[in-house]
């Protein structure tokens, strides 16, 4: 909704209707575009949903990385081996020339955390808008709306007084003289 439509709606509705006791005028202002709401929902919600799915999979299926310790290891030894594998996660393979190479899989294990960081970064503009810009913009708009409301009420009173003057005067020339004054 544009600012002009919000101002017109507030001017026409608030001038004629009394405010309720628990309703503030700032709640009537829409300072965020619907497309911005959709973009915020997708850019923040999608990474958060993927993070939740990754962590739910980790919780429901257990750790995704297991080093298959020998059967004669105790539970503590097996958990240490799994922790070591998780910390030193490497992919071993041969390249096209037959040389042995190791690649770190750190990116894969940090992927859910990077999604979480991305969701936070995507929410920052909306948070800055809401905390820093919206209060000053809302107060400025409420000032403009109040002034428009006062102007609207003054014009209504002026039109009403002109109609009353016309009905009360019998001579049209007297009415014209009063209007010129």
Automatic annotation (TrEMBL):
Record keyword Ribosomal protein present: no
Protein name: Pannexin
Glycosylation sites noted in the Swiss-Prot or TrEMBL record: 72
Stated family: Belongs to the pannexin family.
Organism ancestry: Eukaryota, Metazoa, Chordata, Craniata, Vertebrata
Keyword field: Cell membrane, Endoplasmic reticulum, Glycoprotein, Ion channel, Ion transport, Membrane, Transmembrane, Transmembrane helix, Transport
Organism: Collichthys lucidus (Big head croaker)
A Pfam family annotated for this UniProt entry: Innexin
Function: Structural component of the gap junctions and the hemichannels.
GO annotation, cellular component aspect: endoplasmic reticulum membrane; gap junction; plasma membrane
Membrane-spanning intervals of the chain: 110-129
Major subcellular site: membrane
Superkingdom: Eukaryota
Membrane topology according to the record: Multi-pass membrane protein
Location within or outside the cell: Cell membrane; Endoplasmic reticulum membrane
Gene Ontology BP term (one): cell-cell signaling
GO molecular function: wide pore channel activity
């Amino acid at each position: 909704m544009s600012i002009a439509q919000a101002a017109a709606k507030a001017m026409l509705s608030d001038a004629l209707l009394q405010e309720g006791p628990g309703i503030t005028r700032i709640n009537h202002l829409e300072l965020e575009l619907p497309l911005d709401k959709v973009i915020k929902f997708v850019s923040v919600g999608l990474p958060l949903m993927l993070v939740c799915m990754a962590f739910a999979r980790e919780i429901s299926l257990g750790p995704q990385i297991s080093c298959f310790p020998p059967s004669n290891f105790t539970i503590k030894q097996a958990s240490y081996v799994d922790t070591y594998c998780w910390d030193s996660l490497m992919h071993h393979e041969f390249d096209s020339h037959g040389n042995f190479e190791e690649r770190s899989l750190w990116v894969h294990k940090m992927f859910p955390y990077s999604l979480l960081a991305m969701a936070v970064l995507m929410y920052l503009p909306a948070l800055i808008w809401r905390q820093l810009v919206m209060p000053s913009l809302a107060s400025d708009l409420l000032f403009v709306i109040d002034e428009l409301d006062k102007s609207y009420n003054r014009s209504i009173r002026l039109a009403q007084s002109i109609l009353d003057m016309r009905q009360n005067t019998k001579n049209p020339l007297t009415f014209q003289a009063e209007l010129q004054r």
